[in-house]
Design a protein that fits this description.
Structural class: alpha/beta
Radius of gyration: 21 Å
Shape: globular
Low-confidence stretches: none
Strand order of the largest sheet: 2-8-7-6-5-3-4
Number of strands: 12
Bound molecules: pyridoxal-5'-phosphate
Distance between the termini: 57 Å
CATH class of the largest domain: Alpha Beta
Helix content: 40-55%
Mean pLDDT: 96
Order of helices and strands: HHEHHEHEHEHEHEHEEHHHEHEEEH
Number of domains: 2
Oligomer: single chain
CATH architecture of the largest domain: 3-Layer(aba) Sandwich
Length: 389
């Protein structure tokens, strides 16, 4: 018998805190209970039909059956640069400043491999989307957590970062609109980040996966709109949330050409590009009719109002997100985030995510995703109200 022992890097990953919730959830579903799942942030409505039709067409062309070019099709890179110009008024060079990804998670998890040597620090928001940490650990780096606190509007306090760490750190991840807190960045924050990056020679990786999921007329900005941004970093985008394409695996990185080139080198040694039919579907998503983006957003906006207004009516204190499809909900006194999540699942058949699963500073919150119908969200509020009685 072999003695199978995993590498230290696997042992160093943060503990998986959702295991118990997952177990209770599976058991509940199996026993036939009517579960409302607000746990996973995965759009529940389909990819728009014109994108699917393009996939059918492109998938039946044998030219698209071979290995893709790992730099991405020129048509896709052109669609990305045109979309960027019209959406953010930012010019990108189609050959050197854009890199298609197999979903933005892929690029986010791989980018530390391009820059991090053993023991190098990476500045990471806390709570956060988990791949910032795991990508750092896989590259041999050390996460340095920047707390996202309500008193700072869930923006990291750059002045609170240990100056020695700042000098040594190689990369900073930021993410606005933010998952899990649903906070949005200010212009002043982005300017401070750019100054900080210049002063400390740090590459900024801005995750903008939710740049198109916003409400009440608010339009999130690109980090690259700000003076000097392209000298210090890159931005990650995803077609997943914008076009209901989570399963398709397509996103992109753009910005600083040296950073993009290094990420391209890493990727060319690991993957062989995105299935070309999916790339052609991505072209249609970016260049085609954008009206459904507004439709999807107005759907989430109504759901947000149903959930947040409902929770506030029954005495919870929840603020309304301007973007993302999450509500970040303070846990009422007397519970930890894990305890509240368990209670909601066991007594109300509602799945939520405990904030602490996203990092220590997520304690005190739970996350609810707006990826079920308005009717089911109203039902969830009703069930929570009955818990109080
Ligand atoms: C969903 C999500 C992503 C990535 O999605 P892909 O499907 O890999 O493009 C990236 N960042 C955050 C914060 C997300 O929530």
């Amino acid at each position: 018998m072999l003695k199978i022992e995993t590498a230290d890097r696997l042992k160093k990953l943060p503990p998986y805190l959702f295991a118990e919730i997952d177990r209770i959830k599976k058991a509940a579903i199996q026993s036939g209970r009517d579960i409302i799942d607000l746990g996973v942030g995965d759009p529940d409505t389909p990819t728009p039909m014109h994108i699917i039709e393009q996939l059918y067409k492109a998938a039946s062309d044998p030219q698209n059956h071979r290995y893709a070019m790992d730099a991405g099709l020129l048509q896709l890179r052109e669609a990305i640069t045109s979309w960027y110009k019209s959406r953010f008024n930012v010019e990108l060079d189609v050959d050197t400043e854009v890199l298609p990804l197999i979903g933005s998670k892929e690029g986010i998890a791989h980018i530390p491999l391009a820059f991090i040597n053993h023991g190098d620090e990476v500045l990471i928001p806390d709570p956060c989307y988990p791949p910032y940490k795991s990508g750092t650990i896989f590259a041999g780096g050390v996460p340095y957590l920047m707390p996202l606190l309500e008193e700072n509007d869930f923006l990291p306090d750059l002045d609170a970062i240990d100056p020695q760490v700042a000098r040594r750190a190689k990369i900073m991840f930021i993410n606005y609109p933010n998952n899990p807190t649903s906070a949005c960045a200010t212009e002043d924050f982005y300017r401070k980040v750019i100054d900080f990056a210049r002063d400390n020679n740090i590459i900024i990786c801005h995750d903008a996966a939710y740049s198109e999921v916003s409400f009440d007329g608010y339009k999130p900005q690109s980090f690259l709109e700000f003076d000097g941004a392209k000298e210090v970093g890159v931005e990650f985008h995803s077609l997943s949330k914008t076009y209901n394409m989570t399963g398709w695996r397509i996103g992109f990185a753009c910005g600083n050409s040296e950073v993009i080139a290094a990420l391209r080198t890493v990727k060319s040694n690991i993957d062989s590009g995105i299935f070309q039919a999916v790339q052609f579907a991505g072209v249609i998503a970016l260049e085609g009719d954008q009206s459904h983006v507004d439709e999807i957003n107005s759907m989430y906006q109504s759901r947000r109002d149903a959930l947040v207004d409902g929770l506030n009516r029954i005495g919870w204190k929840v603020s309304k997100p301007k973007a993302t499809f999450y509500a970040w909900i303070p846990v009422p006194p007397g519970y930890t985030s894990n305890e509240l999540t368990k209670l909601l699942l066991e007594k109300a058949d509602i799945v939520t995510t405990p904030g602490v699963g996203f990092g220590p500073n997520g304690e005190g919150y739970i996350r609810m995703a707006l990826t079920v119908s308005e009717e089911r969200l109203a039902e969830a509020v009703g069930r929570i109200e009955r818990l109080h009685k």
